Structures are given as C-alpha cells and as structure tokens.
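Let us work through a complete example step by step.
Step 1: write down the sequence.
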Amino acid sequence: MTASVVLVGGGTTGHLSPLIATAEAIGQLDPSVRITCVGTASGLEVDVIPAVGLDLRLIDPVPLPRRLTPQLLMVPWRLWRATRQASAILRDVRADAVAGFGGYVSLPVYLAARFARLPVIVQEQNVLPGLANKVAARFATAVLTSFPDTPLPHAEFTGMPIRGPITGLASRGRTADRPAARQALQLPATGPVLLVSGGSQGAQRLNQAVTGARDQLLADGISVLHIWGPLNFPDGAAIVEAAGGARYVPLGYVDDMAPAYAAADLMLARAGASTVTETGSVGLPCVFVPYAVGNGEQRRNAAPLVDRGAGLMVDDQDMTPERLVQLAGPLLHDPERLAAMGRAAQEIIRPGSATRVAQVILGGIHGR
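Step 2: predict the structure and record it as tokens.
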C-alpha cells in the first residue's frame, strides 16, 4: 500500500518554504509517497501550495491571543473543532505520519495525530520555538531544528530545509546566475544592487527607510530591488532610473527569491528564519532589522551570522533613511568585505538540510 505523509504549516513564507522544500526532497527520495498538506484559508498556503503542485486540505484557524481578551475564551472550542477536522483528513488520506512546521494551523493536526497514534515529526525554524511546536515536542517521534541552540526536548540540529532553486544557486554560486537575474528583474548589468524585503508580508519600517533613502542611493550609483510586500505595494509605484544608470525597481511580491538573491550584492531584511538561512546558504550579506514585536526570535535567528561577521544588525527603531545610507553606501562599494561576509555566512548554514529532514520523515513512516 502507498505510504502517506501529511505536512502541516502555513500563514507565512517562513513556514511554507521549509514545508515545500521538504516535500520536494521526499518526492526525490521516494516518489511513491503520497503527500498531503494542511493549512487554513487565511494563509498564503491557499495560493502557494497548489501553485507547486501539492494537494492542500483546509481546516479552521485557531489563533491564540497573546493577551487576556474575550477571544481567549473561544480557543478551546476552536481547537476542538479544528482537531476534529484534522482527524477527518488524516483518516481520509490514510496518513502514516505527520510532519509539522509550526504556525497556528499545526497544533490541531499534531493533536489529531497524537489521538490516532501516528508518528509526529516537528521541524522548528526559529531559535525560539513557537507554541505549537513546544506542545508537540513533548510527544513527537523526532524534533528537528534549524539552529543548534533551539530549546526543545530531544532536539536534533538538521538545519532549515531550503527549496531546490536556492540550494542550486548556493551550489553554482550567485555570480553565475547574476547576468540573467539582473536582466529578468530589469536591473543594470553592472554596479552594486541592494535587495530589500521584509518577508512575505512586507515591513513598514524597511519600506519607509528605503523610500527616504532612494534618491541618495541612486545618486551614489546603487540600484535598489525593493520588494514591498503584497499589501503594502503603493499605487503608481514605478521603475526610477538615475542619470548615472542606477535603477530603483519596486515589486509587490516575489515567489522565487533565487533570482533576487543572485542579482543582489547586499540585502536589507527582517530576520525570519527562512531569510537568515536562505541568504546564508547562498552567501548574500545582510543588514538584519529584527521585527520588534514578539518574543525576540528574529534577533536570535540572526545572531549566529552577525557574531561571525557574516551580517550586520540594526534595531528596528534605528533603521532610518540616514542610517541605511550610512551602512549600505560604504558596504556596497567594498566588494572585498562583501565577499568575506558571504564566505563567513556559507560556513555557518549547513547544506542538504531538506534531505536530512525528509529522511527522518520517511524513517518515521517505514518504522511504523
């Protein structure tokens, strides 16, 4: 009988990218395995998962308020309902194992797998784990982490699963793909390029800093590839070309970041786990601006690279247009320093992580 695995995670690219990378690796190792993904209708997975050819089933979201509000009283009912929905999916696809990548959608599926006595594999992307993965780690068959110091019981450091295009770019080297990437993205063939992205949802602080610094960066010969985030993309945004040939290219969203990484010399970014590991793997130096809200996981995500000189870190409130010009200008005109930062980053981020995670999941299936 065909083996069946359920992969669960969603909401943001940070959860979806490692899920898709793992699905790709499972398909390469054992094409006979049936893969089913579980998400919610409110997450990016509704568009992203079907676009890569994976089967997606939906359950109701169970948001967990961070403060004492009336909505907190609804959590037990919502969790029970979503767990019943997840149980029905596991039965329908005859699941042999569940692998989760965190997010609100994961907890009901973890619980449904627990009730069904199925193997549960947890993959945590951040240095500080999320609530769903903290709960599941207590009964999981395997707990896999993207960083070596993630505080989860029985954790095994496997690295962050990274999708094939990013892994391929890391193997070839970014400069090999640069001419084609810059042409496709309408960037100049020569001259330094700053890539800016706040993740799948964008980042207002970064957008404001770049908008304010744009003209000065262009005057300094620095082109900017600015990924605003789909909800933040301004009406009338257009390419701006300076007298010297540098270009400002605004985009709302980019599904495949490999060409953007190849085109760039430096990136201004949040410090989500996917961004940290993907840029590290391809050797793209970053100025990280950790998200100021939450439990501080983004600062911890970037710390291994920053501590080794592979990146810089700026507090959110300090990322102004003036600070961006002060940092990016000298760096982008110092190719030797950028190259050293890139080499240091690639020494920290482990390659082959998607295959390692896939092997653990397949081991859980075949070990039943």
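Step 3: interpret the result. The chain has 14 helices and 14 strands.
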